[in-house]
Amino acid sequence: MIKPLYALLVATLLAEPKGVEIRLEPRSFFADGDVRLTCTVPRHPLNRRLGYGIAEYRHSERDLDGEHAPITYETWIKHVPCGVGPAYCAVARSDLTIERVVLPLNIANCEGV
């Protein structure tokens, strides 16, 4: 039984690191509410810039210092209106690739908008 457990441990350690992740709290909210957007960015020597926000509403950017950059970036987005979204986190790398993750918004009280 030790060998399968050891194989699982080795496979876990050698697995590709997770990519960029996004979290929005609260996940569902009322129109004109506030949300906390969190982007988790694994350290990588090619990471150069992080863009994050809610499409068609707010956008922010910050420089990343490759493998020396912080992993977690968090911001509050205030007064989110109806008709916007999704939330996103996007990392631009020095090899000209971009990794982007999105999360749809669940905004209540937007009927007829």
Give a brief description.
This protein is mostly beta strands and 113 residues long. The chain is 12% helix and 49% strand. It has one helix at 2-14; strands spanning 21-25, 28-30, 33-40, 47-54, 58-63, 72-80, 87-93, 98-103, 106-108.
- Oligomer status: single chain
Strand composition percent: over 45%
Helix and strand string, N-terminal first?
HEEEEEEEEE
- Percent range for helical residues? 10-25%
Distance between the termini: 60 Å
Structural class: mainly beta
Mean pLDDT: 87
Q: How many runs of DSSP E, i.e. beta strands? A: 9
Note the overall shape: elongated
What is the spatial order of strands in the main beta sheet?
5-4-7-8
Radius of gyration: 18 Å
> Helical segment tally?
1
Low-confidence stretches: 8-16
Main pleated-sheet profile: 4 strands, antiparallel
Structural notes for this entry:
The chain is mostly beta strands. Helix content is 12%, strand content 49%. It has one helix at residues 2-14; strands spanning 21-25, 28-30, 33-40, 47-54, 58-63, 72-80, 87-93, 98-103, 106-108. The strands form three sheets. A four-stranded antiparallel sheet has the order 5-4-7-8, with no helix packed on it. β7 (87-93) and β8 (98-103) form a beta hairpin. The longest helix is centred in the N-terminal third of the chain and has 13 residues, at 2-14. The termini are far apart. The relative contact order is 0.25. The model is unreliable at 8-16 (pLDDT under 50).
